[in-house]
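Running co-folding for EPZ.
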Amino acid sequence: MSSYVIEGGRRLLGECEVQGAKNSALPILAATLLCDGKCSVHNCPDILDVGATCDILRHLGCTAERNGHTVSVDSQGASGFEIPEPLMREMRSSVIFLGAILARNGRVRLSTPGGCEIGLRPIDLHLDAMKKMGAKISEEYGHIECSAHDGLHGTNITLSFPSVGATENIMIAGSTAKGITTVVNAAREPEISDLADFLNCCGARISGAGQGTLTIEGVKKLSGCEHTVIPDRIAAATYMAAAAATGGHVRIDNIIPAHLGPVIDLFEEAGCRITTDCKSVTVAAPKLLGSVKMIRTMPYPGFPTDIHSPIAAMLTKAKGTSVIIETIFENRFKYTGELVRFGAKLRVDGRMAVIEGVPVLHGARVITPDLRGGAALMIAGLAAEGETVITDIKHIERGYESPEKTISGLSGLMRRIDNDGSE
Ligand code: EPZ
């Protein structure tokens, strides 16, 4: 089991470039299955979840080759319609293949993703939408079979919750459905707009992405295309929090500041000076951060749930008490039990965490609970005095590309140790 070893207490200084967005690359790669021709997807991060997505594409009969940050997919001859349970369990977000497989093959068989570290992850909104588009669905003991032998048809869908994944499945399935599909209360995340841009580049007719109401006019078929994935706003905010937690001064390049609206406000409330230009964000942090009175996670354009744990870690050394309310996932506070090992003072009550700032954190041996919880442990280790060892880092490597290289490039001391002790 690999680990990160961090020597904390050093200010992060300099500049870094942020990776392509994991939560954009995954649905776009899934959508390539529906394209009749080759797709080249650029700026794909080199992370485990992209690897798992390519494994699923190959399992379905596609070729999927990575060359640097470009993944090339050719779905010609892909006739697979089943995602085996081990692959579903490896990556819960593989449910994003549902719409593409159903639209391409008229049938799909997968297992329910199953609960994960942060919650139950139900897919009822996905299945209800596919049903409304003409699919017949049978569910038994966690196995799901969908069929639409006469193809899918357009319909009007109102989502009870602006689910990112359900919105993405509807966009993909609706692209080649017969007729027009409208989605009210659609998710508005930047990754939704990026997927719409990719699909439209392949010949789809999607309008309203990012505005909450989507219209998808079905076309006969999609061609292949070239597309560059947007920057990862969650990774960018993670490194901003690392800079702030160490009293550092860091410029993060290749980011779209408009994607970080509520996040930038929070860093300024905590006493950081934030400057932006069209492609970068610079964080100049004070020696001692101020607390933040209340953070409530919301669907975009609200404060992103994926950034709550890195921010919590940053606030463990702030002056005063901060409160975080997590409204999206029911089990996203597991990391707090590990933060306490650094000497942090947090209390969790249901969906609320109360963080009382302490003057010093001490390095600790900790275990990664999940992807973004692992990011919180990295930040606490950087802010703590002494050595921190983080184990079970495959969770972190699912979503962050070589964080040890990024941190080392900012004068931090962080290295990756393989289970045999080699670096
Ligand atoms: C996407 O997950 C992201 N993952 C998540 O990022 C992110 O936290 C989430 O959107 C919210 O922004 C990817 O894009 C791969 P949802 P998704 O459907 O699509 C409930 C990370 O760390 N719900 O918007 O699964 C669900 O239980 C990951 O990068 C239903 O009830 O999120 C949750 O409470 C974590 N029924 C809420 O909606 C459904 O059918 C948000 O889920 C679907 C969802």
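Result summary
The mean pLDDT is 96.
The radius of gyration is 21 Å.
Job closed.
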